Amino acid sequence: MTAPAAVLAGDEADPLPIVMVAAMARNGVIGVDNGLPWHMRSDLKHFRAATWGKPMIMGRKTYQSIGRPLPGRETVVVTRDPAFAAEGVHVVDGLDAAFALAAMLARTSGAEEIIVAGGATIYAEAMKRADRLVITEIQLEAEGDAVFPPIDPLQWLQASRTAYPRGEKDDAAYDVVVWQRR
Ligand SMILES: NC(=O)c1ccc[n+]([C@@H]2O[C@H](COP(=O)([O-])OP(=O)(O)OC[C@H]3O[C@@H](n4cnc5c(N)ncnc54)[C@H](OP(=O)(O)O)[C@@H]3O)[C@@H](O)[C@H]2O)c1
C-alpha cells in the first residue's frame, strides 16, 4: 500500500488535477457543529455527480460527520490519531500521504482527477495544491464555525458560473461556480 509520495504524485510527468469541491453560504460558511448549516438536496446530488468514481480526500472530522464511506468513491481520511480506524476507507497520517494514495487509487481505477472534500482545515491546507475549485454558492447567509479559505482573484480565475433555482428540498437557490488556477 505504501509507495514513495514523490513517485506517485509530485514527480509524475502528467499529474492528475486536484479539484476541491465545496458548498458555501454567501458569507463563506461551510459548516456548523461538525455538520452542514443547511438542507440542500440539490447540492447533495451535485456533490455525488462531481465526485463519483474519483478518490476523495477528507479530514477525520468531516468523515465522522458523514459517518460512513460514501458509495462509488474511494475515501482517504486524514488524521494524526494513529489509533483512528474506520471500515471501508483508507486512513493516512498527512496530506502528502493522502495525495500519494489518492493518485495511486486514481491510476488504478482510471479516475481523471483527485477530489478534496473538506472540511475547513483540509481545504485551507490543500488549497495551494489545487488546480480547480468547484463551489456551490448557496444563496443565504449562514451562522457557523467552519469557513472556506479566501479565494484570491490574483490566483484564481472564475471559469464559469451557473445559477440554479431553489429545488423542493433546498433551503435556497444556488450557483455552481468553477474557479481555475491562473
Ligand atoms: N459545505 C461543505 O462543502 C463541507 C464539506 C466538508 C466539510 N464541511 C464541514 O466542515 C466542518 C469540518 O471541518 P473541520 O475543519 O472542523 O475538520 P476537517 O477538516 O474535516 O478535519 C480536521 C481533522 O483532519 C485531520 N487533519 C487535518 N490536517 C491534517 C494534517 N495535515 N495531517 C494529519 N491530519 C490532519 C485532523 O484529524 P485528527 O484530529 O483526528 O488528528 C483534524 O482534526 C464540518 O462542519 C463539516 O460539516 C463542509
What features would you highlight for this structure?
disordered N terminus; 28% strand; single chain; two-stranded antiparallel sheet; alpha/beta; 182 residues; dihydrofolate reductase activity; eight-stranded mixed beta sheet
Structure report:
The strands form two sheets. An eight-stranded mixed sheet has the order 5-4-3-6-1-7-10-9, with helices on both faces. It has a two-stranded antiparallel sheet with strand order 2-8. The chain is globular, with a radius of gyration of 16 Å. The chain has 182 residues and is of the alpha/beta class. It has five helices and ten strands, in the order αββαβαββαβαββββ. The termini are far apart. The chain has helices at 5-8, 41-51, 60-66, 95-109, 120-126, and strands at 18-25, 29-31, 56-59, 75-78, 90-92, 114-116, 132-138, 146-147, 156-164, 174-181. The chain binds NADP nicotinamide-adenine-dinucleotide phosphate. Pathway: Cofactor biosynthesis; tetrahydrofolate biosynthesis; 5,6,7,8-tetrahydrofolate from 7,8-dihydrofolate: step 1/1. Key enzyme in folate metabolism. Catalyzes an essential reaction for de novo glycine and purine synthesis, and for DNA precursor synthesis. This is Dihydrofolate reductase. InterPro entries: DHFR, DHFR-like_dom_sf, DHFR_CS, DHFR_dom.
